[in-house]
Amino acid sequence: CLPPGLSDGEAMELLWKLRSRRRQSSPELPETVSCLTAPDGSTLYLVGTAHFSDSSKKDVATTIRAVQPDVVVVELCQYRVSMLKMDENTLLKEAKDINLEKVQQAIKQNGLMSGLMQILLLKVSAHITEQLGMAPGGEFREAFKEAGRIPFCKFHLGDRPIPVTFKRAIAALSFWQKARLAWGLCFLSDPISKEDVEKCKQKDLLEQTMSEMIGEFPALHQTIVAERDIYLTHTLRQATRCVEAPPNGQKVPGVVVGVVGMGHVPGIEKNWEKELNINEIMSVAPPSRFGWVLQTVFKGVLMGIVGYACYRAGGTLGRTLLSLPAVKGIVENLRLSRA
């Protein structure tokens, strides 16, 4: 609560001083937090998390409250920002419910192969959600909530757009690698416990898992992990800069909290002082002729199913099927592709 009668400038100065008093100069932070320094003296507190972990949420809240940051950066892009404002029950239901509309939206947004791969990864997420009874991204929602309680704190999305990541990942794999990966994701059924999730916060276990992944799909690791390490480092460095302090706009070193999966922490630390060029990891190759043929066949099969259903069920049900948004979208895409 601010005293009545203050001007805007006085109120800003008072809030700035209040936050400065709350900011701990030598905070005791969780062991999952790394500290990096920018050339201008600004500080980044990098919180490594497991995406389905209650203790990661506590680590994020503890860090933000202790350092009272100027900026909070999370490992999300604009395509996944909706999870910040959904409640746990809604997210839990969404993660478990993979329907035709979601499949169509993923294909429309990412192309056929990338869209189907996204659906398979959503299936993995749904499997973990069902096993743990916990929606993904809790640490990001915790960061969003805590950032909103701190005066002058900005909230940034730091990850590369997910369509770019999926398209580059699919383009980097051979046909047989795509088939092997899809097969493994389709038949994922191993039980997962909360203890298994917490082990993901141990760097040695994570490095072992990453090594196994590199051995089987090195191209996939490059696009999904290594390239995003570079992009996240770039956005974190953009945020870790001096800020203007009221009332005279004097430049002072900034304080930033970054919230990322533990698997990205070693790469960010490695790239922190390097010269980076993100243009190289933002380009997407045009779809191959094979991909175009496969997409046309896939759409044709769906149209055949709809047509057969109309023939067998009669006019009323046929008109109902053709009125569905998913079916109308497929018909419209076929019409445009012919044109």
TrEMBL record:
A Pfam family assignment: TraB_PrgY_gumN
Tree of life domain: Eukaryota
Record-linked InterPro entries: TraB/PrgY/GumN_fam, TraB_PrgY-like
Name of the featured protein: Uncharacterized protein
Protein species of origin: Periophthalmus magnuspinnatus
